Amino acid sequence: MRLAVVLLLTLLAPLATAVAQQAVRIKGDGGTPDTRYDLPGTIYRPATTAPAPAIALFHGCGGVGVNLTRMAELLKSWGYVALLVDSFSSRGLRDLCGWSKWPTPADTEKRALDIDAAGLWLNAQNFVKPSQLAFMGYSYGGGVGLFRTLSSKTDSRLPSGWRAAVLVYPDCDQADGIGARLRPRLPTLVAMAELDDWTPVARCRSLFDRVVADRDLLDVKVYPGAHHSFDALGLPVRYFEGAGNSSKPNRCCGAHYGAHEPTWKAFVADVKVFLEKYLLVAR
Questions:
Q1: Binning pLDDT at 50, 70 and 90, where does residue 29 land?
Q2: Residues spanned by the domain of 272
Q3: Does residue 262 form part of some domain?
């Protein structure tokens, strides 16, 4: 499927040697209501005039949060272009974390097209190194990313520039209905928390047990002592009683989440090594 991508850039600050953040619109039309796009985003560009590899970031059920903006700034400091995609606001959505609003696998399949739109948009930019792209998905967004990397339905839509994926405490149930025999389409780093009771490690391992080809493309990390949202620095672990939780009967209810700084540091180191392996940054 081809998505016609049109760029509309609104500058938030003057463009100097070190490029400031920019608000962007990612527009596309794949010919059906589900594939017409007008997604807001924010672009973070490194202090270089040369084209650079790019990473698109996709948020979880609560929308764009500080953890993603922190990651985007970090990626920029490493020399990457970072595109932070807002999949909710143009659809009139705000927070889907409650049990009555928790996204379904059908919602996930539709949202996976956001990844296509972002990839095509990035490949069209003169400040992005062609075909040197990765995407990161968090929690629910990580489940969308899993669908994107594991489903054969996405084969004809894969932009040639995707080189790798990073999925952070992903909701593996979002990809559960894909099939009995799975194969990753991209090198994929999966970062999970040992104590996660919102997107549990066991559910992901059950999914990965169905991978029958190219299993070496999966790099699975399980960080000890950590809960969901281990990268929410400064937030003590707490219990969200009303959380939609697809690992529980009827997706209800409750889960722990909160920061674990040792895991954050280990995760950052692992992501840096992984991206350097699959994307080329000009030195």
A1: low
A2: 43-278
A3: yes
1-26 burial, b for 16+ CB within 10 Å, e for fewer? eebebeeeeeeeeeeeeebebbebbb
Strands 22-29 and 36-44: antiparallel
List, as one string, the DSSP characters of 235-283.
---EEETTBB-TTSGGGB--EEE---HHHHHHHHHHHHHHHHHHS----
Name the pLDDT band for 67 (thresholds 50, 70, 90): very high
Number of other CB atoms surrounding residue 131 within 10 Å? 14
Domain-located, residue 15: no
Q: Model's pTM, two decimal places?
A: 0.89
> How far is CA 110 from each of CA 36, 87, 208, 218, rounded to the nearest angstrom?
11, 11, 22, 24
Q: 190-246, pLDDT tens digit by residue?
A: 999 999 999 999 999 999 999 999 999 999 999 999 999 999 999 999 999 999 888
CA–CA dist 146, 213 (Å, integer):
15
Specify if 101 maps to a domain: yes
- Measured CA to CA, the distance from residue 20 to residue 14 in angstroms comes to 7
Packed helices 105-123 and 140-150: angle between N→C axes, nearest 10 degrees:
80
Confidence band (pLDDT; 50, 70, 90) for 11?
very low
Residue 11: which residues within 8 A CB-CB, separation 6 or more? 20, 22
- How many domains would you assign to the chain? 1
Give the residue-averaged pLDDT of 37-64: 94
Q: How confident is the model at residue 105 (pLDDT cuts 50, 70, 90)?
A: confident
User: How much of the chain is helix, strand and coil, in % rounded to 5?
Assistant: 30, 30, 40
